[in-house]
Every structure is written in structure tokens, then in C-alpha cells.
Design a protein that fits this description.
alpha/beta, four-stranded antiparallel β-sheet, 18 helices, about 40% helix, disordered N terminus, disordered C terminus
């Protein structure tokens, strides 16, 4: 071939010898095209549009003809070999052994002994032929056949010879197939068909003598879950409940099927039958590598939990189905593994995580992550929930201000999507209430404001991009903040559940699915449908690496644990197959989130501009006139004159020591309280500066 440049409309240049050169010449001239011309006339003819279409049509026709030939060959094979071979083989065996060619024996004759009587259940009279021994009937048949062959050879030897050769060829093909089939099914017939045949035959009054006549169970039924199996029943079968239950029990026990095998009895007409199918199970194990290709196509709001039957991905669509998720399972069921999979994907898509973990060690993989906070102590969880309530109010104000006439808020940049993970709600709610009883003043409500803030998140989370994933061993209404709050968890994940737990959380799904025994197997209930799912297992390192990929590359070095931007557009990773979301910027009134917890980050150096201290240090150094730590924390929330935090140590707020001293002095002057009186009201302390008996 030669490559030439031509301009549209110009005459075809005459091909000439090309000078050898390795120089790459860019073709950037106006209207210049690169034309590849075939060398030979035949090749040029084949490159014409008509020839190309003709060749494509010929290839298509050839592929269709080949496919048709394959189908025809398969139909011919079934009609000439697979279907008649068993029938001919059984008839030949009956012919040689002297057994009746059709039906069952009508007497008690054996191969070596003549019949003595006719069984009572056999109706009608029986001829003398049936009373002969099997060898006598076999000899008579073979003798008659030899006589017929001899006569045929005398009359038409050529025809008999051709017929004999044809029958011999068929016998060879059928015999080979029958022998192969017999070897393959011998173990299956011995282990499954004959025991099931003997156990069911009397209960359903089946008259068939061989299991293959009415038990249609292939040898590979164990390795092919979900395949429909069938048992033919006699015409007299009445379909009573007692017999049906007996059939179900015997089939499950003899075939080793699961307890949730689905049966369907068809009793209409004169050919009743029952079909049954063992449910297809999810894969035994799902790893990070198994769902990584699926995550590339998943939406930001639909993290993948795991795989269901048929390797179908199971997601939690927090935008279309449920803004919040409830996880209920006994200890050791893998609740933390499930949360690890959800949160790491949310962070990878540009979200921001907040973990409340009173157990302190459930999610060490997320410790010190730049796009995730980790709170362990009740007082820190309390403060964080109150700041989240303020964030909810801020985002709601933005939604109200910028939503269009149809209520759409997709264009409103409220900030990054926030994922709130609340571990062990049974203990967390109890400790929050206890902490509030210790610090509340007279006249304040008994309900913890932190618990009320959590309820605000549940009722207002969808449009403002805040999602709560709560974990509880027993998710009672009291634990979850009331029955109304619990109804906001439209997606519920259960494992190792009891009947009481299932009735309480998923009464609309009944009968209750079989409790999974395999570790990592969950029931994901959404919209009244329970899906058995094998949860994806992320190792802690895999989850951490995935979560950190959600931090923009330009911010990974400068991102501060305590400084989350107030308006950061939610973005998807390029390598996860999503286009970056672009929303118009809006003006915000405050920060999105407060700093991370002091109990999960390393202490960091503070600026040298002034002496900054934490609240506990202020109490220990007696900078606030004898106030207790609890009262000082309450003052940060209620006193508008309280100094503003100027720095952080981890997530602990640091305040200028001099401003704290001045604020405390002004407070005493305003209330008329002396420093001595303040010291007397300080109360007993324990080592470390914390008050005793809080």
C-alpha cells in the first residue's frame, strides 16, 4: 500500500516511488486528507463500498447457515440417538431376558422359575405365556427371530443383509450411548433415584416400577441450583395436605435439599405432577476485587453492599429508596464489615465521614483519615451531634433559598455528602442520655439535645446530603428514638436475627426467610423484599486506601483534619467511571462541620502567636475562676460572649488563655460572684481534671 495526501476535489495523483524516510511529517494543511490506497486492482475492487457490503452480507449469511447446521445436527442427534436409545435398549433387554415388552409382569414368574400365582393387585385374567419362566420366553423369542432371519435369507438375502447392517450400525450407536449414559447415571440412580422411588411410591400410590419413569431429576441437580425438577404423580393423586407435606419432607430428606426449597403442586387433569426448585444462593465469599469493576459504574448515592444470587450486585440507593440504613445483628455477625464497605465507598466518591463508636475499636481503619472523623467519648459525640444540627439548619436554609419552583435542589451546593456511622446505638443512646442528665441544669428538658439532633438528621437528611447508618443489636423503638424515627430507615440489614427481631423490623416480609448460617450472609430488606446477600469483605487496608482516594489530589497535602470547607462540591473519582459533579457555588453562613475528635488524632503543633489552651487545661490551670469542666462546656454553647476558638489540637478546640481569663472575670463581675465563691462551687475533682460523679 501507499499513503498519499490529497485535497478534496483534486484529481487522483499518479502513484510514484516513495523515497525511503523515517521522518514523521504532520499533515496539518487546510483540507488535507490522508488516503490509504490498495496496491492491486483486486484489492481496490474489494475496498469499494459495494464489495464491502457484499462481503459483510456473505459473512452474516455464512454465520447464520453454520448456526442453522448446528441446530439441525443437534435436533437430529436428539431424534435419532438420545431419545430412542434408552427405549430401544430397554426393549432389547426385555426381549432377551424374557420379560414383558410392555408393562409389568402379571405373575410371580422369575427367569429360572415358572409362575405359581397371579398377584391380587393385578386385575383380569392372565394367559399361559405369562406363567412361563423367563428363559423359556427368551428361548421362544430368539428362536422365532432366527427362523425369521433364515427365511429372509432364503427369499431375499440382499435385503436381509442390508437390513442387518443397518440395525447393527444403529445398535452400535445406541449401545455406545446407552453404556456411557449407564456409567454416568449409575451412581445417581443408586444414591438418589431408587431411595426416593421406594420412599414415595407407596405414599402417592405410584404404579411405575422404575424411578426414571416418574422421577425427572438429572444427575447434575446438585451443581445446578435453581433448576426446576419434576415428579410425575399418578392420576388418582388427590392433592391432600397430608400427602403434600409428606412428599415435601421425603424429597428434602432424600435429595438433601435446603429447607426453603419451593414446591408447586399441579393436580388438575389426569396428569398431575409436582415441581420443586432449590433457591440459588449468593457466592460463598465476595472480596474487594469482586466488586471493584461494579464500583466503577455505581452511583455516588448507591454504594454496593455485596452480591446476591447469580452474582447480582446489591446496592443501597440512598437517594431513590432510603436516605438512611439500619443494621441489626447479633454480636460477631459482621456489622463493622458491612459499615466498612459502605463508608469507604462513600468517602471514595468525595463524601465526608463521621463515626460514633463507643466501643472505640470498631473502625480503626478510619482513624486519622483526612476526610473522616472518629468520636469515641459521649461528650464528644454529644457536641458533634449538636454541631450537626446547626449544619442541618444551614443546609436547609440554602435549600429553601435556592430550590426551584418544582422543589429540585440538585443545583444547590450544600456541601459534601456527609456519612454518619453510629455504632452500637443501644449503648450510644443510653450514654448520651446519661451524660445529659449529668450536665443539664434545672429547668432544662430531660431529653438529650444530642438525641434530638440525631432525630433531626433522620427526618431531614435526603435533600441536604446527610445519611445516617445506625447499628444496633436490638433496634427497638426506644433505642432508635421512637417508632417514627425508626420508620425513616427504609433499608434494613439483618443477620443472625431472631423471630422477634424480624417481626419487629420487617413484619411486611413473611414468612421469615431462613436464618443464614454462613458468615457474612445478610438479608437486605428494601420495599418489602428481602434479598439474601453475601456482604463484600474489604480488608482494613483496602478500605483505607479506597477511602483516601476520595480526597482531591490538590488537597491531600494541605487538607486539615479540622478544616472541612463549607462548600465543597461532591465529586466522583475519574477512575470510578463517573463524571465530576458541577454545581453552582453559593454563599454559606458557617462551616460545614466542626473539627474531628481529640481522642482519635495525634496532637499537632499550634501557632506561636498566643497561648492557646483547651477547656480541660483552662480548668486545671484555674483560668476560669473555679468553673467545672461541664459548666464551661455548656458556656461554649450558650454564652454568646464566650471567646472564639483560635486553633485545634486534633479536634479539641483551643482558646486564647488571656481571653478566657478576661471572659471569666467579666462573667463574675456581671453575676456578682467572687473568685472564692467560684472555687467553693467547683466541687470535687479526680486526677486529670475531670469532676468526680458526673
Amino acid at each position: 500500500m501507499t499513503m498519499e495526501m490529497e485535497r478534496p476535489g483534486a484529481a487522483d495523483p499518479q502513484p510514484g516511488p516513495a523515497a525511503p524516510s523515517t521522518e514523521i511529517v504532520p499533515l496539518r494543511g487546510s483540507g488535507t486528507e490522508l488516503v490509504v490506497r490498495p496496491e492491486s486492482a483486486l484489492a481496490r475492487l474489494a475496498a469499494t463500498p459495494t464489495a464491502v457490503r457484499t462481503l459483510a452480507a456473505a459473512r452474516t449469511a455464512g454465520a447464520a447457515a453454520l448456526d442453522g447446521a448446528r441446530r439441525t445436527g443437534r435436533v437430529t442427534y436428539i431424534a435419532t440417538v438420545r431419545a430412542p436409545a434408552p427405549v430401544v435398549g430397554r426393549a432389547l433387554c426385555r426381549f432377551i431376558s424374557g420379560r414383558p415388552l410392555l408393562g409389568d409382569s402379571r405373575t410371580d414368574a422369575t427367569f429360572w422359575r415358572s409362575a405359581r400365582r397371579q398377584p391380587i393387585e393385578v386385575a383380569g385374567e392372565t394367559g399361559k405365556w405369562s406363567y412361563l419362566a423367563g428363559w423359556q420366553r427368551s428361548a421362544a423369542r430368539i428362536g422365532a427371530l432366527l427362523i425369521a432371519v433364515g427365511v429372509g435369507l432364503l427369499v431375499r438375502p440382499d435385503l436381509v443383509l442390508a437390513l442387518g447392517l443397518g440395525l447393527a450400525a444403529l445398535a452400535l450407536v445406541w449401545g455406545t450411548y446407552g453404556a456411557k449414559r449407564s456409567v454416568e447415571t449409575r451412581g445417581h440412580r443408586t444414591r438418589y433415584l431408587w431411595p426416593l422411588h421406594e420412599a414415595l411410591r407407596g405414599a402417592v400410590r405410584q404404579t411405575a416400577t422404575r424411578p426414571e419413569q416418574w422421577l425427572h431429576i438429572p444427575p447434575d441437580f446438585k451443581s445446578n441450583p435453581g433448576a426446576e425438577l419434576r415428579i410425575d404423580l399418578p392420576p388418582a393423586y388427590d392433592g391432600s395436605d397430608g400427602v403434600q407435606n409428606h412428599v415435601k419432607t421425603v424429597v428434602r430428606n432424600k435429595l438433601g435439599l435446603e429447607g426453603d426449597t419451593v414446591f408447586a403442586f399441579h393436580t388438575e387433569g389426569n396428569k398431575p405432577y409436582v415441581t420443586f426448585r432449590e433457591p440459588v444462593r449468593p457466592p460463598a465469599k465476595v472480596t474487594y476485587e469482586d466488586i471493584l469493576p461494579l464500583m466503577t459504574r455505581a452511583k455516588e448515592t448507591a454504594p454496593i453492599i455485596g452480591l446476591a444470587a447469580g452474582h447480582k450486585a446489591v446496592t443501597v440507593d440512598l437517594e431513590a429508596e432510603s436516605p438512611h440504613v439500619l443494621v441489626s445483628a447479633a454480636s460477631g455477625a459482621g456489622k463493622s464489615v458491612l459499615l466498612r464497605a459502605i463508608l469507604s465507598q462513600g468517602l471514595a466518591k468525595g463524601g465526608y465521614g463521621i463515626i460514633f463508636d463507643v466501643k472505640r475499636v470498631s473502625h480503626l481503619w478510619a482513624d486519622n483519615l483526612r476526610n473522616c472523623e472518629y468520636h469515641r467519648l459521649p461528650e464528644l459525640i454529644h457536641d458533634r451531634l449538636l454541631s450537626l444540627r446547626r449544619e442541618v439548619d444551614r443546609r436547609n436554609n440554602l435549600v429553601e433559598k435556592y430550590a426551584d419552583i418544582d422543589g429540585n435542589t440538585d443545583h444547590v451546593d450544600v456541601g459534601p455528602r456527609i456519612w454518619v456511622m453510629a455504632e452500637e446505638m443501644n449503648v450510644t443512646i443510653s450514654r448520651l442520655n446519661k451524660y445529659w442528665r449529668e450536665i443539664k441544669e434545672k429547668g432544662e428538658p430531660n431529653t438529650s439535645p444530642a438525641v434530638e439532633a440525631l432525630l433531626d438528621l433522620l427526618f431531614m437528611g435526603r435533600q441536604i446530603k446527610i445519611h445516617v447508618i445506625s447499628v444496633a443489636q436490638m433496634a427497638s423503638a426506644r433505642t432508635m428514638g421512637g417508632p417514627e424515627a425508626r420508620e425513616n430507615y427504609a433499608t434494613r440489614c439483618l443477620s443472625r436475627y431472631t423471630m422477634n427481631a424480624w417481626k419487629m423490623l420487617c413484619p411486611e416480609v413473611w414468612p421469615m426467610p431462613r436464618k443464614p448460617k454462613q458468615r457474612g450472609r445478610w438479608q437486605i430488606v428494601t420495599n418489602g423484599v428481602a434479598t439474601e446477600t453475601q456482604v463484600a469483605f474489604f480488608t482494613p487496608r483496602q478500605a483505607r486506601d479506597l477511602a483516601q482516594s476520595g480526597i482531591p489530589a490538590s488537597s491531600r497535602e494541605t487538607f486539615r483534619d479540622t478544616d472541612v470547607p463549607a462548600s465543597q462540591p461532591s465529586h466522583d473519582r475519574d477512575d470510578l467511571g463517573q463524571e465530576a459533579e458541577t454545581v453552582p457555588g453559593t454563599v454559606h453562613d458557617s462551616k460545614v462541620v466542626d473539627p474531628g475528635p481529640a481522642d482519635s488524632h495525634e496532637n499537632r503543633a499550634v501557632p506561636e502567636r498566643s497561648v492557646l489552651v483547651g477547656l480541660r487545661e483552662a480548668v486545671d490551670q484555674d483560668l476560669v475562676g473555679g468553673m467545672t469542666l461541664a459548666n464551661l462546656r455548656k458556656a461554649t454553647q450558650r454564652d454568646v460572649q464566650f471567646p472564639e476558638a483560635k486553633g485545634y489540637r486534633g479536634s479539641e478546640r483551643l482558646y486564647p488563655a488571656e481571653e478566657l481569663r478576661k471572659w471569666a472575670l467579666n462573667r463574675r463581675m456581671a453575676t456578682g460572684e467572687s473568685e472564692k465563691e467560684g472555687a467553693e462551687n467547683k466541687g470535687p475533682e479526680v486526677e486529670g481534671g475531670e469532676e468526680r460523679g458526673r
